[in-house]
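Sanity check. The docking grid for iron/sulfur cluster depends on where the pocket ends up, so I'm generating a full predicted complex first rather than guessing from homology. Inputs follow.
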Amino acid sequence: MSTENKKVTVIGGGIAGLTAAWELSRFGVNVDLVEKACFLGGHAIGFCCKATDACVQCGACSVEDMLKKVVDEPAIKIHLSTEIESITKKNSFEIVVKKSIPSSEKAVNGVLTGFSKNNQPLNVIVDKDKAGNAPKGAVYAGDLGTSGVLEADAVVLATGFLPFNADNKKTYGYGKFKNVITGLDLESIKRDHGGVVRPSDGQKPEKIAFIQCVGSRDERLGNLWCSKVCCPYALRMAEDVKFKNEAASISIFYMDIQNTGRNFPGFYEKCKSRMDFVRTIPVDVFPMEDDSLKMRYLNEETGLPAEDIFDLIVLSVGITPGADNKTLAEQFHVGINPDGFLAASDPLNRSKTESEGVFIAGTVEGPKTIADSMSHAGQAAGEAMRYLGVSK
Ligand SMILES: Cc1cc2nc3c(=O)[nH]c(=O)nc-3n(C[C@H](O)[C@H](O)[C@H](O)COP(=O)(O)OP(=O)(O)OC[C@H]3O[C@@H](n4cnc5c(N)ncnc54)[C@H](O)[C@@H]3O)c2cc1C
Ligand code: SF4
Ligand code: SF4
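Predicted complex below; grid placement will be based on this.
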């Protein structure tokens, strides 16, 4: 069948949505890419490179590479700052979209900064009242968005995940003690400063603890799943700190280490020879006078309480279901799992849903690395093309 006039709407412009859009466009399908935020790239566009003397295959640079390809592809129409209002389906989908002004929570003086459609830094005003001195060239979020109706023959949902909100693990003092940070904070610190520094004084930390499984595999929170990405990202970051400062002391507090990826086992063995692995989940954290932190935990070998002092504590937060999953599931008649991720209808093909013409890609379906999100998105694009009768 001809691909002429075949249209797919991809919802979500993270690595999964970008990959699905790109794969579809390569086979002549026209794509509307709808992104609620003012920027493309999702969570992973903000990640840093963790290469030491060699690439450690964290996947961060593949997001920037994909973003560059997508913004230059004429078959992909990008709608930033846009969200779905309603859907009707007869033979095809009619998707009503509206402009969306993102929350100003993370804005500095009413302005958010991120990547533009041309892959250049873009300043977006989200709060006009506060943005008196907005940088030259800043645009208003409302001017980026689209309001209207998008016609589509198929839909790919790629709206991603929410990082676990570390405020919900109160005993670790996130948000209260400056030097308790999350893995996401660590990514931005490294990206902004070129290395790891303490938020309280900008000094290089000499003694760092990583607490694994924060918000994952936690019965009390009802989050029983393994997030799959936090062991590899924590160990890569820890190894990067060691590479730059051999004297740094690193302790990893863990339950199990999720062994992911082809080269991970060897990398893990190397980490074990250079860091302390303490098999326990810490109880709580207290501040010290110099902004250092005292951590209390149970020593599983002796069965006795123990404590240690660190310059910096990193909470390895995991992946939780996206904020809009419930609404999207209702709007598109897609199943939702008890844990809140969107449900695949076929265990052997996790991009298919019970709704004809609707496919899912990336972490909207469950925890995944960047590489796994990309291959899942490739599968979703392939299924969408099969559904449309487009031959690859
Ligand atoms: C702290 C941390 C560190 C990590 N480090 C690594 C790493 O080093 N390597 C690795 O491989 N993986 C890592 N990951 C995992 C990685 O972040 C994910 O694999 C990747 O971001 C998934 O991409 P995605 O497109 O599925 O979702 P997202 O990145 O969440 O993108 C989803 C996009 O959809 C948009 N969206 C949401 N709702 C809507 C809506 N209703 N309408 C329109 N748009 C919407 C969002 O604004 C966002 O742009 C890490 C995760 C965490 C939490
Ligand atoms: S995969 Fe990660 S470590 Fe390797 S070059 Fe890319 S960003 Fe750097
Ligand atoms: S990847 Fe590691 S830290 Fe993350 S939930 Fe799984 S076991 Fe815990």
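Relevant for the grid: The domain at 164-319 is CATH 3.50.50.60 (FAD/NAD(P)-binding domain).
Also worth noting: The chain has a mean pLDDT of 93.
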